[in-house]
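User: structure tokens for this one?
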Amino acid sequence: MTRRRTNRSTLADHVVTMKPELPCIDLVDPEVELGGELVQILRNVLRTGTYIGGPLVDVFEQDFAQFCEVKHCVALRSGTDALRLTLKGVGVQQGESVITVANAPVAPIESILEAGAFPELVDIDERTCSIDPVSL
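Assistant:
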């Protein structure tokens, strides 16, 4: 039995070769420039045993707030905590609904639940891959 080739396209027919518009990030020069300082900071953290909070984090928060030209900065352990704190900060109350996309990863949904709210999942717009306004 012989196989007849059809005119169906293959994945290779659809591969697009893209020329990067942005240069790759140079990871060597910053390490050479800051390596000694970073190693000293890491040694200080290891020596004090203060991995969460403490004076080193206080200094980081102050320095980062100044860098961002804002009054305050809060260092958190994860993006999930950052989302939860943001929800509380914008006034989301216990039992309220918070809209997010149905294909959201676990962290946003977990953050909504941890803030005491309920996630309301909506469809995405296939063109923008964001919330479909029609589904609201």
